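hey m, so remember when u said the tokens were messed up on ur end? i reran from scratch. heres the input so u can diff it against urs
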Amino acid sequence: MASLGCTLTAIVTPFDEHLNVSEERFVALMHHLAEHGSDGFVVAGTTGEAPTLSDEEHLALVELALRERPPGKSIIAGTGSNDTRHACHLTERATELGVDATLVVTPYYNRPSERGIIRHYEEVARATEKPIVLYNIPARTGTNMGPELLRALAQIEHVEALKEANSAQLQMIEGLDLYAGNDDVFARVLDMGGAGGILVASHIVGDQMRQMAEQPARRGEIDASLRDVYETLFLTSNPTCTKAALNLLGFAVGGLRLPLIEADERERAAVAAMLERHGLLEGAGRR
């Protein structure tokens, strides 16, 4: 799983003025991020607004990322669903397209039992020969995968890593490479010997997050300096403030599809102030 990289960006999906996927802007952003710290990309994940993408859009975006990928960068497709058949379909199609791995979230809303979760991942694993990254985020799914369940899931063929967004139970699980699911625990995961993080702030401060991975002696200092970035980008539902920041920086990633809405005046002001504090607005309009 080390081949996936350490600093992985859960990339936003840019939209045009009609809220259609903008392929040109997606490719431009992906290449910019590749030049500023990203080892690879999670495409059509939560940050990519996957819940409001059709299957056609979802898979076309994965195919585009693979076709236009920067040299040496990994592509991980978000293929989770609360419908096992749907998750299997997306995973199978993403595998056929040639992804390096898939990110599969715990089934949400219907809140299956632990036995149901195990059966879900067993079925998804049959749909691929590529690594599967489990995604535990109880705040969104309503279900937590605890350490014992994660150890059981680690026994399933192709299940090789964990994106852990329940920071209260952050720990290494035998058989699973650990990725930070929240930016504010990226440093902790690296200190624990984890594989890295699936990150959002790397859209904005990717070079610094890369330095956290490469310069352990400065990790704590860098992490402390970025705390306001993490906080500001998550003032409201992700990727609202991330898109606001990128738009202010000149990347023209557009708005959000309902039920998400664009940042309000207070949120935009907070984002602008954060960018100003970090000296990121200088020259942004020239992009």
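this time it looks ok to me. DSSP finds twelve helices and eight strands in the chain. if urs says something different then somethings off w ur setup not the seq
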